[in-house]
Amino acid sequence: GLVPCRFLTFTAHLVIVISIFWSRENNVRASLPLQCTQEQYENQDTDALPAAVEILLFISVFGLKK
User: Fold this and answer.
1) What is the pTM of this model?
2) Which terminus of the chain faces fewer neighbouring Cβ atoms within 10 Å, N or C?
3) Mean pLDDT to the nearest integer, 15-40
4) Is the sign of the CA dihedral 56, 57, 58, 62 positive or negative?
C-alpha cells in the first residue's frame, strides 16, 4: 500500500516540476505588469530560478531515498 502511493506522489511531483520548467517564461511574465522592461523580466526570472531548483533538489532527494 505504501510503495505505490509513494511512487504516485513522486511521479506527480516530477510531472509538476517538468511543467513548471517548461512554462517558466509564461509564469515569469504572468508575475510582471503588462508593460515591463527586459531588465525587470531578467530580475524576476533570476528570483524565480532558486525556488524551481529547490523543488528539483527536493524531488531528487526524495527519489533517491531508500
Assistant:
1) 0.55
2) C
3) 86
4) positive
